[in-house]
UniProtKB/TrEMBL annotation:
This is 4-hydroxy-tetrahydrodipicolinate synthase. Homotetramer; dimer of dimers. GO terms for molecular function: 4-hydroxy-tetrahydrodipicolinate synthase activity. Pfam families: DHDPS. The keyword Cytoplasm applies. It catalyses: L-aspartate 4-semialdehyde + pyruvate = (2S,4S)-4-hydroxy-2,3,4,5-tetrahydrodipicolinate + H2O + H(+).
Amino acid sequence: MFHGSMVALVTPMAADGTLDFDALARLVEFHIENGTDAIVAVGTTGESATLDVDEHVDVVHRVVRQVAGRIPVIAGTGANSTREAIDLTRLAMEAGADACLLVTPYYNKPTQEGLYLHYRAIAEAVPIPQILYNVPGRTACDMLPDTVSRLADIPNIVGLKEASGSLERNRELLSKVAGRIDLYSGDDHIACESILEGFRGVISVTANVAPRAMHEMCVAAAGGDRAAALAINEDLVELHKNLFIEANPIPAKWALMELGLIPPGIRLPLTPLSTACHDAVRNAMRRAHLI
């Protein structure tokens, strides 16, 4: 249903932390012009944790309106409260999103049965296509392949963003659910190999900064052109690494500011990129031929 380079879009903010909707519109156009295959609005990279509900829904609605059907819009609607996730998912559907991306509940550490019941409840409550999101390094919660396999039987659960950082885990998922739901890499540094092995795309932080290259890498990898995909990815290796030199989305927002695409705002408790990290991110941008 969705494929290719899907950007986990940052949410532009002014220096005082207020949302910058003019910059958001420019950023959407930047991605469409550079081949991004889908936009994830207000996912975790979009600082969903520090936007209130009204802001969250407003950003989704504005992205949907700006995109105007040219590419899919996927709304981040995950929460560690099942009721809150249902409410956000329903509001995103009403705002016109094509699908929702739901991160596993964070901090409260549900069991595998709890994860199954959480996602089943959301899917049964809101009839929009839904993509599961597993990122244990950020949530302290790891959704195991057997649980994903159970959830793959629910009709409107259509995909999984897997960000465990493990090719071995990705291969296990392919063996258990390929052909039942689509699989997307949530780790830029192994996205190329994951797509070559059968994943349908990547939900990407790197695509914020290098959308054209990420799109072209995905096209090559999905087409089985290993040499071309690896060659494109080679120029992105340092970006994949250094866009996480501090907590995401700190480096990505700084890089986009350097490119003149967004203002410098980010919300506490996140802070702007440390001066000591500037050269590492800037050099990665040079290697990717962005500056």
